[in-house]
Amino acid sequence: MDYGGGVTNIDTKTGIRYGVIALNSVTGDSLEDLEYDYPFNCPDCGNDSLVKSRSAQYDYFCQSCRTWHMEDDCWGEESNGFHFEDSEYTLVDCLDTNIMVIKSPYYTHARFCSPCVPGAGDLDTPDEDGVKTYCLGPDWFDAHLNCPLPYPVYKVEDDSLIEAAAA
Question: What is the pLDDT of residues 12-68, one digit of tens each?
């Protein structure tokens, strides 16, 4: 069921749904290029209303709790997500343990991911009768590393099948 009503988690130019896949479904090597996002906020109150300081003594001033801080103290120690973007893919974190494929040269057919991610396709449950869903290409998987390709991969450009799902 499409809890997104046909307008959520979909590329409106192509009609292809965004894809969601568990981090542990792809090889660890392919995750090395993900860029982790760290929060930048006040170490005292957590607010992100920091203003670059003109002071020689401090780098930032928090407008919320009115305190001064050095830049190194304002970066969080734990990531609050990740992203990846190159000429082929745009990926972001989703639900802390998943990758959302927002742009890809490839697609597959999958069941809806709803209601957790309304309108997106669940790449961990491929379905030949499912919705057209952006996916990761074969180079993100490796059967020898216990991460077989879970779905057939088609080119967005011409709808040609480039690789079938692992048996």
Answer: 999 999 999 999 999 888 788 888 888 888 999 988 888 998 878 999 999 999 999
| E strand map for 23-148 | 35-36, 50-52, 60-62, 67-69, 82-85, 90-94, 98-103, 106-112, 121-126, 131-134
| CA–CA distances in Å: residue 52 to residues 40, 56, 74, 95 | 12, 11, 12, 32
**For residue 92, what are the β-bridge partners?**
83, 100
Read off the tokens for 7.
């307008």
Q: How many residues does the chain have?
A: 167
pTM passes above 0.70: yes
Record the tokens describing residue 64, joined without a space. 């919320």
Nearest to 134 by CA among 162, 156, 166, 161: 156
100 vs 57: CA distance, rounded Å: 42
d(CA 62, CA 108): 47
- Exposure string of 80-102, with b = 16+ CB inside 10 Å and e = fewer, is eebebeeeebebbbbeeebbbbb
